Amino acid sequence: MFQLTVKLPHPPNSIQIMVSSQEQVQDIRQSVIDLPGTFQYSCFHLEHNGTRINDYVELTDVPGIGPDSELVLVEDPYNEKEARIHFLRTRELIGAASNRVETAGGILGGMTLFDGIDTVDEKNRHPMADYDFNAPASLDKFLPPTPKSAAPKCVKGIALSAWNPPPYHLRQKGHLLYLQVTTLEGESVHITSHVSGFYVNNSSSQRFDPSPKTKPKIQQAHSLLNLLGLISPSFDKEFTALQEYNSQKDPLITFGPINSIPAYPWLVPGTNTPYQTHQADNARPQEAYLIAGTESVDSLRDFNEEFQSTRELPRETVQERVFRERLLSKLFADYTEAAVRGAVLITRGEIAALNPTEGRDAQIYVYNNIFFSHGADGVGTFTTEGGDEAARVATGKDVMGVKAVNSLDIPGLQTPGTVVVDYCGRRLVAQSIVPGIFRQREDGANQIDYGGVEGKDVVATKEDFVPIFDQMSKSMRVKKHSVWDKEGKKHDLVASVETKGLIGTDGRKYVLDLYRITPLDVDFLEKHWKGTEDEEGYPHKMAVLRQELVESFWKLKMREYVQKEVERRRKQKEQEDKEAEEAAKEGREVEKKESAEQDRIDISGFEFALNPDVWSGQVPQTDEEKAQMEADEKDVRAACAYLTERVIPGLVEELKEGDVGSPMDGHSLTRLMHKRGINVRYLGTIATLAAEHGSKLASVKTLAVQEMVSRAAKHILNNLLRGLPAPLIAYAVAHFLNCLLGFVHNPEPKVAKDEALWKLYHDADFTFEELTVAGLQEQIKKQVARRFRYQLEENWESQIKHLQMLREVALKLGLQLVIRDYQFGAPQPDAAKVNGDAIKANGESSSKKKKKKGGSGGAQSPVAVGPSHTFTPEDLLNVVPIVKDSSSKSQLAEEALEAGRISIMQDQKELGQELLLESLSLHEQIYGVLHPEVARVYNTLSMLYYQLDEKAAAVELARKAVIVSERTVGIDSTETILNYLNLGLFEHANGDTRAALAYIKHAFTFWRIIYGDGHPDSVTTMNNTAVMLQALKHYTDSRHWFEASLAVCENIFGKQSPNAATLSFQLAQALALDNDSKAAVNRMRDAYNIFLAELGADDRNTKEAENWLEQLTQNAVTIAKQAKDLQARKSRILKMAPRVTMAAKPQPQVGQGKVEGGRVPESTTSAQTGGMDERSIDELMRYIEGGHGQEGGKKKRTQKGNPRRRGGRA
């Protein structure tokens, strides 16, 4: 790193920038553009020693550059594109740019609530004061924070003027654009954008004269920002105030996500609230032109060429790898954005099909050089395997396959950019166009060079593909095997027959159709797939094993191989020792092998892979071929058995024992299953196994059933929405939700028709009108039985959690609903007002009603008379696309992170921290700061710093993790909630317990929204809160949180469980601190009796409880006898110092294992007791008796406790 000076043409005339020799010149250029003192520059180049420097070279390639060198910034002439960019940038800098209504966007994308949390809360004793456990969680928590003051305005308006574009003769003179500005003083000024810069002209709204205005003087500048300062006397003052206003917020809150899709909340404020104001802005409709130009040429890109040429960039040095992976990350983000926009436009009918005469599902489209097709069986490819259902699954599996190949990053093997978009019931697949894929080959040969052609009838085996396909298959544990074409001819393939290789006209080797890189789940299909005609069997034959399971099974086989090798060597050593003993007796010498060689096991001889084409219609011809196929099938069946007999029961057992954090919602449950290689079709099995363990796994069963019902509902609603015109979608969704969740409020919901729309779209599919409550419930029951092999219980519909089910359905379909009090129960006398309530301010509810009331954000429901409905069409404000992309993780950043973790585990702290910081830097460089992967690395590093006792650094990183996860994965996602809980813990450890409680309260409220009350891991959160309240000496409030924690624990594990005993122990101490001696004795007696019965008299916990029980009993007697004599009471206190279970212990994140490295290994849900505090009974008694001073000159310990940390293995 060294310092450069950049000379500027205007004040401040020069700036200093710290740079790295490996940086490119364009990085320095970007730094100049972003710095507050120089952001008026956008069209310039840099010179060194009078020579222009290329923006795309590294600094090391610039002759003579080094520390303290000077670069000169030279302003360039504008062209139209540069003028448009400069104008857009200026609008954003001065705060004149209004919110864009993106084609494929949504409401409040990338919002954060972090800056709205009151960590001081001066009105209350502490943030948890008067917390009501019985009040329902407030949906007002979804409301964005209201700014304390409005942002300063620099101009009243700025836009392109009506005189655009310049006529031909003025274009010749260098005129580019014409602008119109209304200053704060009310003056309307017309400006010419010229190749030389910007100047005020003589035009008005009625008269066109773009020549420079000379009176009172010519006003011109190279930068529009500088010109505005010359025109408006108050501009500079207001612009400075705006910069100060913006600097009050964390940059992570104000910057927009660049390399990731922002998270869109499923609940948003209504349109009649101050949170959604639609302001007039003349420039808003001009932005499409300003961004892309007249011909939209700027937005047209050859994505395929960009992908492949970027992959072919050199990757020898670390800097080359960083540059390459950063480009790939940006390219994937740009491609995904373009693909989503195209999919939305196609769904809305705004892009014409290339084959309009075909059926809708067979139609194909091209938009922005991206090829689109439907995720349905439009041409009959999957007729025998499940039709549309199979085609839909195949597209999802293909994206996963492309992602897997991308992560392997094999040189010479190319994949097309692939994205799947689900929007309004339709699935569209977007692929970059492989050169030559649509062109018929001259010799009439097949376009496919390797793999199955036209199904499996013809098989191509071009040898050029064998080496790279073999490399891919070995990494994916795919076995080299034989397949047979329709004539019975044998072909040896190194990949599945469904995986295709194609040589494009650019000469590159592409791999396509990666939906069958793992074998079929043979055992499952044998039991449940009866063909396409069976309406009760599994809906398709595309049930494949997950890649994670295949990898796990391969590791199991490798362990078995190593164990056999160890056993063989042990026997061999025994034989050698025996021979040596005999030789010694005979006086002979035996040569001994080196022990290092003995200990090293060579696994190069281990080979294990699975045949992906087992049970897929292959017909071996000879006995030898049949025997080989049977052996392959046996291996696949062993993998299937491993899944059902070991992996699934193993996960349930770990959840029961508390070895992994319990999932909070459907997404965290399915993510946990996927990490173990368990397919979602086994949700029914998970629910059944969880039910066998009773209340211990009641939460897992509840979530599994909820997830199955919501997925079934998703499939049914998708079928109803598919092909429905956009204006009718709100009516269909509202009626569907009324049938699913509003049937108690109104058992016979009716569609709220708009007769004008019904007449206009008379040929639309109005099947949704026929939907009834009973009909929908029966459909869901059948879908759950068919897809998950699970029979829903009788009255299942009355057992579901309405708010949580609404959230799951909304997230799966991309629905954005208005925040308001949805009436799921029986109608109230004032039910007619259900749609007209106003939104209240952020805060806790103290009422006992079902949900906090909020504004509907829309007009009154069209239903005028009769029973009200829970949902109305006005409740659906928007639908956002659900996206699956194929971008893979950065291998370089992951390697650095793993190296840092290993160094920390090996007690090399300095090296470990250096590597971890390097990994963080790589993550930020490659992904950009606002990205889910960066949030995860912030979270990981914050936990590691917490363990290393770097508390301030842990807090700073945890704050960043919270903001980035809120903006990229959602304000109510499991990850965000866990990040908030971690932040609370770190703030407490760092001394700011009030802020810690504020963050925990925020997270706890969202936890109650996404799961409800009584989650097993919420015991941890309640305990942490109680300990923190004790640290603030709020003993009564602390006691209430311990009591709530114990109630949840007893409900889940039973009143006689060791978990309940541990919490009773803690509660007894809390009661003693709250001067309730009698209750403290009773609770300690409960704890002692349970420990005695469950753990025995000799257990440490039993003995400790006995000591405490004796002391508390004596103290209670003393208080009763000598209430007036404080000194007499003190004389009875025994000086004992056993360890006290007042501290809480760490807890893993959802789905992560036991925490290690000096941390307590058990979790809340285990049957063992917690981590121990070292506070003595003597000190606690001083609290009880009110003696908070120091005794005997001994310094009293500050009691902060040690709340449990949330986070997985580092």
Automatic annotation (TrEMBL):
Keywords: Cytoplasm, RNA-binding, TPR repeat. It holds the Pfam family TPR_12. Coiled coil: none annotated. The keyword Cytoplasm applies. Residues 276-525 form the Clu domain. GO terms for biological process: intracellular distribution of mitochondria; mitochondrion organization. It is found in: Cytoplasm. Residues 1172-1182 have a biased composition (Basic and acidic residues). One of its GO terms (cellular component) is cytoplasm. GO terms for molecular function: mRNA binding. The keyword Iron-sulfur does not apply. Residues 1194-1210 have a biased composition (Basic residues). Residues 567-597, 840-870, 1141-1210 are annotated as: Disordered. mRNA-binding protein involved in proper cytoplasmic distribution of mitochondria. Belongs to the CLU family. May associate with the eukaryotic translation initiation factor 3 (eIF-3) complex. This is Clustered mitochondria protein homolog. It comes from Ascodesmis nigricans. The gene is CLU1.
